[in-house]
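Q: I'm building a small set of examples for a reading group on sequence design. Run inverse folding on the following structure and report the sequence directly after it, with nothing in between.
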């Protein structure tokens, strides 16, 4: 992969502060939005499900991530891609304008000629370039490390698309129909892997992880990188892993074994 040049950030301090204000309240919406005199959306959400994980918002105590074992990822297998398309209502087409949140890539070791097949998606960086260059704050990182796009304020400038070194973002060129209720999308906006945040907030696994496990491959491990007792943290502590383009020092949430 070649290194993309970062576009200088154009955000003011106020804009950056506003972006941080989104962290942890994505499920509740904008706290100041009035739907009736004296009634705010945030208050309705809190009253409806005060004890559910989703109502508590994202926490910095958790950092969600993935570990992908390249030795268990077979060339030609697209179970994770199919699951992502189905879960998020993506077309799965091959046109240049089709959205693709996860794709399989082939890498080759120059010295030995050995090839490996890997899934590539948003790497959910701790220091995401897409967030740095977004002029409206639409690209943001939740407190738990999941990088998302707020469709309401995305203006489709595609600065984030150019800034992402993983080519992990897509632009919606055409009107959309039959959308999934949990996965809002929209023409003229940018989108990418959300780690199936709508499932994670319910205590479920991302669709690609479940599909890989159900097929018996077990190539994708999902969990809390901040918890030393989680399966993913134990695996990372016991076996060497790599980050894609680790020279960029982005501290990605997606790691790879065997590359």
């Amino acid at each position: 992969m070649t290194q993309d040049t970062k576009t200088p950030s154009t955000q003011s301090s106020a804009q950056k502060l506003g972006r941080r204000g989104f962290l942890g309240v994505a499920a509740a919406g904008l706290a100041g939005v009035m739907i009736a005199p004296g009634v705010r959306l945030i208050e309705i959400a809190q009253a409806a499900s005060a004890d559910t994980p989703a109502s508590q918002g994202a926490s910095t105590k958790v950092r969600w991530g993935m570990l992908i074992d390249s030795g268990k990822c077979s060339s030609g297998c697209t179970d994770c891609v199919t699951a992502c398309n189905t879960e998020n209502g993506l077309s799965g087409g091959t046109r240049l304008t089709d959205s693709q949140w996860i794709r399989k890539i082939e890498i080759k070791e120059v010295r030995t000629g050995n090839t490996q097949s890997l899934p590539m998606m948003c790497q959910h960086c701790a220091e995401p370039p897409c967030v740095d260059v977004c002029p409206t704050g639409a690209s943001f990182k939740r407190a738990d490390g999941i990088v998302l796009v707020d469709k309401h304020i995305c203006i489709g400038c595609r600065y984030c698309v150019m800034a992402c070194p993983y080519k992990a973002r897509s632009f919606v060129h055409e009107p959309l129909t039959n959308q999934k209720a949990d996965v809002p999308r929209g023409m003229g906006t940018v989108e990418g892997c959300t780690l199936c945040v709508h499932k994670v907030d319910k205590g479920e696994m991302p669709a690609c992880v479940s599909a890989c496990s159900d097929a018996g491959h077990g190539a994708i491990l999902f969990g809390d990188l901040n918890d030393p007792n989680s399966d993913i943290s134990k695996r990372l502590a016991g076996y060497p892993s790599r980050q894609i383009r680790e020279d960029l020092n982005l501290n990605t949430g997606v790691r790879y074994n065997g590359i």
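The first strand starts at residue 34 and ends at 36.
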